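Need Putative ABC transport system ATP-binding protein's 3D structure for a figure. Predict it.
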Amino acid sequence: MSGGFRGTGLVKHYRRGAESVAALAGVDLAVAAGEFVALVGPSGSGKSTLLALLCGWETADAGQLTYAGDLAGRRPDALGWPELALVPQALGLVADLSLADNVLLPARLRGTLADDGPRAAALLAGFGLDHLADRYPHQASLGEQQRVAVARALLLRPAVLLADEPTAHQDRGHADRLLDAVRAAADDGAAVLVATHDEIAWSRADRVLSMRDGLVTAGAPV
Ligand SMILES: Nc1ncnc2c1ncn2[C@@H]1O[C@H](COP(=O)(O)OP(=O)(O)OP(=O)(O)O)[C@@H](O)[C@H]1O
Ligand SMILES: [Mg+2]
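Structure prediction for Putative ABC transport system ATP-binding protein:
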């Protein structure tokens, strides 16, 4: 399955009463299938807001968002885990599922639990989580929970992978293993966009986009 995406003139304001925050001020970006793009920028520059639009959690006030290939014509909020997988900045694990069941959640929703069991086990082992499989999120460290969120996103080899600072809570060794897996997803054909402050992640990416004050200021497509 292939599916790059393109955003043009994306604008998003957050309103609270009379106050309005321009989180995105007209973002243009494109990520092709097979490409790993890193999204960098200071805290508050709009990275998470952009990912929230791309995954359909939020809708843009203006601008166009289109998915390509097998995802052409689809709305982001209608895409499932095999099509679009997200690693949220706040992780979003299900509290009353074990870590293994959190990783398997996309397979459970797709109805392919048995088929996807071996890949889930391999991801857990690869991220140093196999001995924690039966624990619940509140019994795991933040870094361990984050690796579960990345494994969940990778499980079904999604066409689009969006990850919000996926190495933020990792030591260098674990961060490198997560980045190897993200790099492999792109090499297998996924369109990958990773918001990150991790300079090693930038070096693993094909391209780096810089954000500032709600705009992509450098590295935007010409
Ligand atoms: N729900 C909200 N209501 C009001 N303002 C918001 C909301 N969510 C985000 N913002 C504001 O929008 C701007 C962009 O926030 P965003 O979370 O996208 O930044 P970020 O680049 O992801 O930052 P960080 O590196 O800290 O994660 C910030 O000024 C933030 O305060
Ligand atoms: Mg953020």
